[in-house]
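Your task
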Amino acid sequence: MKVLFIDKLVPYPPADGGTLRVFNLLRYISQHCDVSLLTWHRPSEDEAGVADYLKSFCAHVEFVGKPVLTAREYRQRQFGGLLRCETVRSAVDYSERMASRIRTLTTNEGYDVVDIQRPEMAPYVKAISPNSHCRKILTLYDVPYVQYRRMMAVKPGWRAKLKFFFKDVLFLKRMTLKYGRYFDQYIMVSELDRRIIVQDNPDLNVVVIPNGVNTQDYTILREQQPISPTLILVGKMNYLPNVDGAVFFCQEILPLIRQQVPDCKLLIVGQKPDTAVRALASDYVFVTGYVESVVPYYQDALVSVVPLRSGGGTRLKILESMALGRPVVSTTLGCEGLAVAHEKDILVADTPADFAAQTVRLLNDEALRQRLIVNGRRLVELEYDWRPIAKKLLQVYRQ
């Protein structure tokens, strides 16, 4: 079986949830089928070295440069996207060269499956050769218009809310649903997301392939001795839900925790920290920026916090924390779509006072930490290991 993956991001080195997902699935499904990867290239990367590494398990790897537009061309594409009910980003980034490569590859290579990642790349389904008999799949990591609607709710100011509504919510919803007729199947990462999108378009054929974690690479970390009351917050720190979560935690939750645990510290770990995130740095808040591995930072921490108030999909950071043996305190939205239970696998709290209280409980109660560590690790091994998840994806491809 021959599979073509099309994505907008190079999946190596994996630096966020989407690239982690693509990277791990490519590694495992390539053991059972012939996989090609077509994606944008990043000029700052060691492109040759990255391509060589990806070719160690992909049969074909190809990077395409993004179009460089004049101001006039940008405005024309922006207007054209609005007329077609497409988002500004998908209209502005559309590349005839990428479309041409898709037409050529699907004409000449005889792919059985073309799996397009993310809604912004959905328009490229029209570039697939009409002579190709491949199965066309669109993979979404969340319900994108729901994600942006939630972002709009936490964005201050009515102008920003209005911009979010027209720029992302309205057109992203129309685009996501209208392309359903071009695809044989949609893949979502949770049953909750599947129900939401099917409710909006009952004609869609949607299957759930969850996010996961590599339980072979990640083993439970021992707690540092002597125990330090250090918290860790992980995520891509220019992503609005993560920025909002970090600011919300530092301004409204962390002061309540430090009233009871004065020496509590916070590690904010993630690439490209926004100005608002960098401004949180202090004697007890450490903003790392990009790190090659998050594991040493988890080693230094006692508890993982996920204080999200917006966003969508499922959080690989929670699976990662549980795999590494770091108990989690999360908002209800933060752990949405995961098969976790409050008091069994993680602790769930939504108000600043409750979130602070649950975090202090974990910091002070070793027995509770150990119970959540054991249960969390068992859950990721049974439900969220990348190997069985890749097998589920292969079954979808083979249908």
